[in-house]
Amino acid sequence: MTLESVRYSRGSLLVLDQLLLPQECRYEAVTSVRQAWEAIRAMKVRGAPAIAIVGCLSLAVELQAGAGGPGLEALVTFVQDSLNDLVTARPTAVNMAQAAREMSEVATREAGREGATEDAVRERLICWAEHMLEKDIKDNQSIGDLGAQHLLERVAPGGGQVTVLTHCNTGSLATAGYGTALGVIRSLHALGRLKHVFCTETRPNNQGARLTAYELVYENIPATLITDSMGATAMAHKDVKAVIVGADRVVANGDTANKVGTYQLAITAKYHGIPFYVAAPVSSCDLSLKTGQEIVIEERPSQELTSLGGTRIAAPGIGVWNPSFDVTPHELITGGIITERGVFSPKELQIALTS
Ligand code: MRU
């Protein structure tokens, strides 16, 4: 059985509470957009694709239960208000915003059709949200396969196994299944070409120690946990052949926002001549922004740094800065950007996605 961040059937949405992992594997019912917003904000569900999927499916559940309306105009307003609300839960990952734009367009278009009925529009919107789940898994499998193939051609053309390093959690728990950067690692493992993975603990929320480590152990993938500050020494001493991370937003020039700590890994990889890859679906690409400087970086509560598991670990009175993401400039993405449509250099990305 594979790990699932989300369990969905028409009218019912269950979300794995990732704050409880690895101690407890508990699913929580999400019956409204408001509940989804709270689960996303609290990081019970996290990871750019999973945030969008849970957001849209929570709306599908409300629509199935009859929310919105009566009347087409009221239904469309309800859908748009709900989507606008969901986008505010976490600002850096673009997937929810892209999905909101598309779902809102579907609502307007379907409601504008001659003879449109409330039931038909409702059904169309629910199907659209359900389709996201299937598409995300397929896209991740393509990312995994294309990424593994590219990486092996580049770093091990003569055959043999490779050791890689990853950051944060980009696996089944961050997506509808399989994962992006972790999907590439899964594909390498399936091909018998993965020697070892180093995963960083990913302070302050420990997505690496709690979630990636959990997924790797669950899948019997050979892996070792390191602290974030061990990235350079791991690259220097552990024969790391590539660094692969996910993305919350890739902009037109290839600059990429991802979990804080990604930037320093990219600098370190460049110093060591190790290719640095970003694996992300097209839904994480935002060509409306020219450079990474335009990306809004979420800042999270200071308690994430000052406490661990409810126990205060920082000296009382100390000031705290807690940006949740950082931006890796495109020059440091030396391996490429792995999408479901192919692997592109940051320079090629915009043309590849618009042609
Ligand atoms: O704060 P999080 O846990 O939502 O951050 C997650 C990441 O930064 C991931 O690398 C990114 O969302 C890609 S998940 C496929």
UniProtKB/TrEMBL annotation:
<feature type="active site" description="Proton donor">
    <location>
        <position position="248"/>
    </location>
</feature>
<dbReference type="GO" id="GO:0019509">
    <property type="term" value="P:L-methionine salvage from methylthioadenosine"/>
</dbReference>
<keyword id="KW-0028">Amino-acid biosynthesis</keyword>
<dbReference type="GO" id="GO:0046523">
    <property type="term" value="F:S-methyl-5-thioribose-1-phosphate isomerase activity"/>
</dbReference>
<keyword id="KW-0539">Nucleus</keyword>
<dbReference type="InterPro" id="IPR037171">
    <property type="entry name" value="NagB/RpiA_transferase-like"/>
</dbReference>
<protein>
    <recommendedName>
        <fullName>Methylthioribose-1-phosphate isomerase</fullName>
        <ecNumber>5.3.1.23</ecNumber>
    </recommendedName>
</protein>
<comment type="similarity">
    <text>Belongs to the eIF-2B alpha/beta/delta subunits family. MtnA subfamily.</text>
</comment>
<comment type="function">
    <text>Catalyzes the interconversion of methylthioribose-1-phosphate (MTR-1-P) into methylthioribulose-1-phosphate (MTRu-1-P).</text>
</comment>
<feature type="site" description="Transition state stabilizer">
    <location>
        <position position="168"/>
    </location>
</feature>
<dbReference type="InterPro" id="IPR011559">
    <property type="entry name" value="Initiation_fac_2B_a/b/d"/>
</dbReference>
<dbReference type="GO" id="GO:0042802">
    <property type="term" value="F:identical protein binding"/>
</dbReference>
<comment type="pathway">
    <text>Amino-acid biosynthesis; L-methionine biosynthesis via salvage pathway; L-methionine from S-methyl-5-thio-alpha-D-ribose 1-phosphate: step 1/6.</text>
</comment>
<dbReference type="GO" id="GO:0001650">
    <property type="term" value="C:fibrillar center"/>
</dbReference>
<dbReference type="GO" id="GO:0005829">
    <property type="term" value="C:cytosol"/>
</dbReference>
<dbReference type="InterPro" id="IPR042529">
    <property type="entry name" value="IF_2B-like_C"/>
</dbReference>
<dbReference type="InterPro" id="IPR005251">
    <property type="entry name" value="IF-M1Pi"/>
</dbReference>
<dbReference type="GO" id="GO:0005654">
    <property type="term" value="C:nucleoplasm"/>
</dbReference>
<keyword id="KW-0486">Methionine biosynthesis</keyword>
<dbReference type="InterPro" id="IPR027363">
    <property type="entry name" value="M1Pi_N"/>
</dbReference>
<keyword id="KW-0963">Cytoplasm</keyword>
<keyword id="KW-0413">Isomerase</keyword>
<dbReference type="InterPro" id="IPR000649">
    <property type="entry name" value="IF-2B-related"/>
</dbReference>
<dbReference type="Pfam" id="PF01008">
    <property type="entry name" value="IF-2B"/>
</dbReference>
